[in-house]
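Input (structure):
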């Protein structure tokens, strides 16, 4: 069994992982980052989900590395694509509805590779693609090493590090290392959160979605083979849904009122699905066609949870639902010219490399963020979000929970712009394992606003800096939080050295939609 030694081992290659790796490297640390697919970037790339962002993302409140990523994406299009005259500095390649900058996942892959390139060339960062964790070696309250399997060769590699970061999409290391964690929904009887279920339910998990990229070629036929389970998805109606998922009908997430979509805008006031997550707007380019990503309610898979039951069946069901919706759009929906673009997703079948994961195992943390800290309804005095003295970064998104495997419809409620508390990044027991994805100390409810692209990047920056800071001072993360002087020094590293903004201005912190 081969062995490798590094300062910081990051398992999982999502946005939090990339941010943590870059930050730790900038602080002089050696880093190994692993990823089970052949693309770094997680939800932005392998899951093919254009970024969900807040209203102030173009200002100084974006995580510094995330702002650089966005600048580089725009520069990539300016350098390599036939832009029409008139594209301004805030280029939005897709002109999508969901974000101020929708773009192709493969462009994000190229940009991430650019950002890592000098560090990889110097040997400071080592990237192990197509590697997955199979064992974690612990000694009391410490993680000593992680064994990885090369998915191409089957060979095993054990990597030892004084700091290990779990940046996997499902919190894989928490399970393998026996780190105290939560799965599914906490109960209102424990957290007091107004929108939590009465009691805990580990199998109450948000729907996953297997996204895919499309173009439309009117007059052509690109109908895929009829999926084996098509009739099931065409005819099944969930008790909380207005009809079969294979339709243009869903519900408004906030009010749960019935809503009608159209694939393309028709001037009748119906929502335009095509533009919702469009990643290439042809009108901005010469010789291009529109590209869009299907990440719509019609492909939310809620029949089985991904954790604690039968994950293989859940993954297979999610894939079949996505393909069934595509087949329905091409046939009964009336658009045979819809064509999969596997080159966009980097796969043979045209689906994303992995499903879009909205919810993970979550550490039992020194501090858990509750709805009462960030939810507008839960803070009726209008005072804005809770002010955390141990803030390590900022975020902003609604508490947005998609339909769940427990048969619950959307929970979509307003949240104030919020801070990321250091306490939510520190497990209650294990000293040197840190989370850098959706596995931080949130609840099922608050995960709904801490799970998006910019927040994941901000978490990664804070965790990478924390590992570097702790290595430099030879102290554990919980000591940084409990010692006022150490916490102050760490926050100065974040703000003064790395340029991370830790506090919202009052007029933004109390902002309501």
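Output (sequence):
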């Amino acid at each position: 069994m081969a062995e490798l030694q590094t300062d910081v081992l990051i398992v999982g290659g999502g946005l939090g992982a990339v941010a943590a790796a870059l930050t730790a490297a900038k602080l002089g640390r050696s880093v190994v980052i692993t990823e089970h697919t052949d693309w770094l970037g997680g939800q932005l790339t392998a899951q093919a989900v254009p970024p969900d962002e807040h209203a102030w993302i173009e200002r100084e409140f974006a995580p510094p590395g995330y702002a650089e990523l966005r600048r580089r994406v725009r520069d990539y299009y300016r350098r390599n694509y036939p832009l029409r005259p008139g594209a301004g500095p805030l280029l939005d390649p897709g002109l999508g509805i969901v974000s101020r900058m929708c773009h192709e996942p493969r462009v994000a892959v190229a940009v991430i590779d650019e950002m890592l390139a000098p560090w990889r060339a110097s040997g400071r960062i080592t990237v192990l693609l197509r590697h997955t964790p199979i064992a974690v070696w612990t000694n009391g309250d410490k993680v000593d090493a992680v064994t990885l399997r090369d998915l191409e060769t089957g060979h095993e590699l054990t990597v030892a590090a004084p700091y290990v970061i779990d940046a996997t999409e499902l919190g894989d290391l928490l399970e393998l290392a026996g780190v105290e964690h939560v799965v599914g929904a906490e109960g209102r009887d424990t957290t007091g959160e107004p929108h939590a279920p009465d009691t805990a339910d580990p199998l109450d998990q948000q729907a996953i979605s297997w996204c895919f990229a499309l173009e439309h070629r009117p007059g052509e036929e690109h109908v895929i083979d009829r999926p084996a389970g098509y009739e099931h998805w065409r005819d099944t109606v969930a008790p909380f849904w207005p009809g079969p998922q294979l339709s243009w009908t869903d519900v408004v997430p906030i009010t749960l009122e019935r809503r009608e979509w159209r694939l393309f805008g028709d001037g009748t006031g119906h929502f335009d699905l095509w533009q919702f997550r469009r990643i290439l707007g042809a009108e901005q380019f010469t010789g291009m066609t529109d590209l869009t990503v299907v990440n719509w309610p019609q492909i939310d898979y809620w029949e089985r949870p991904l954790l604690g039951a039968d994950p293989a069946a859940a993954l297979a069901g999610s894939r079949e639902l996505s393909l069934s919706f595509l087949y329905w759009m091409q046939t009964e929906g009336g658009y045979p010219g819809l064509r999969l673009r596997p080159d966009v997703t980097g796969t043979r079948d045209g689906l994303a490399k992995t499903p879009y994961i909205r919810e993970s195992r979550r550490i039992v943390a020194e501090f858990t963020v509750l709805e009462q800290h960030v939810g507008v309804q839960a803070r009726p005095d209008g005072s804005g979000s809770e002010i955390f003295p141990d803030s390590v970064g900022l975020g902003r998104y609604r508490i947005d929970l998609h339909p769940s495997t427990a048969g619950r419809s959307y929970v979509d409620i307003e949240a104030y712009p919020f801070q990321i508390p250091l306490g939510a990044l520190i497990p209650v027991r294990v000293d040197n394992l840190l989370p850098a994805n959706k596995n931080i100390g949130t609840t099922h409810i608050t995960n709904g606003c801490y799970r998006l692209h910019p927040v994941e990047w901000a978490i990664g920056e804070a965790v990478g800096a924390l590992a570097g800071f702790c290595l430099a001072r030879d102290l554990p993360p919980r000591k940084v939080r409990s010692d006022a002087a150490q916490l102050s020094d760490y926050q100065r590293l974040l703000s003064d050295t790395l340029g991370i903004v830790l506090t919202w201005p009052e007029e933004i912190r109390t902002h309501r939609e």
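Notes: The chain has a mean pLDDT of 96. The longest helix spans residues 453-473.
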